[in-house]
Amino acid sequence: QVKLVESGGGLVQAGGSLRLSCAASGNIFTLNLMGWYRQAPGKQRELVATITRSNSPNYADSVKGRFTISRDNSKNMVYLQMNSLKPEDTAVYCCMAVTNRSYWGQGTQVTVSS
Fold first, then answer.
1. What is the pLDDT of residues 47-66, one digit of tens each?
2. Torsion sign, CA atoms 39, 43, 45, 47
3. Which of 102-112 are b and which e, b meaning 16 or more Cβ less than 10 Å from the residue's Cβ?
C-alpha cells in the first residue's frame, strides 16, 4: 500500500503563486509516473501535469507556461509550482502515483480570488 499526502494549498489572489508538495510513503518499490489532477466544484477531475521517473513532464494546455512539475526520486516527492494563478485554477488538487497500480492522495484545496 502507498500513501500520498499533499500540502501547500491555500488561498491566493489572482496572479499569485503557490507550490504544492506530495510525499509518498509505504510499500514503495518504484514510483513510475507521478502527477497532479484537479477537480473543481461541479466539474470532472482533469489532468494538470504528470512526470515520468526520468523527469519527462506533460502538461494540460490550460496550465502550460504557468505551472511546473518536478520530482525528487530520492525523497519520493513530487511538486507543482503554480505561477500566474487564475480564478479558474480554483479546485482540489490531488497527487497521483503509479507503481503496479495507481494511488491517489486526499487532495489539497487551492482557491484563487479575483
1. 999 999 999 999 999 999 99
2. negative
3. ebebebbebeb
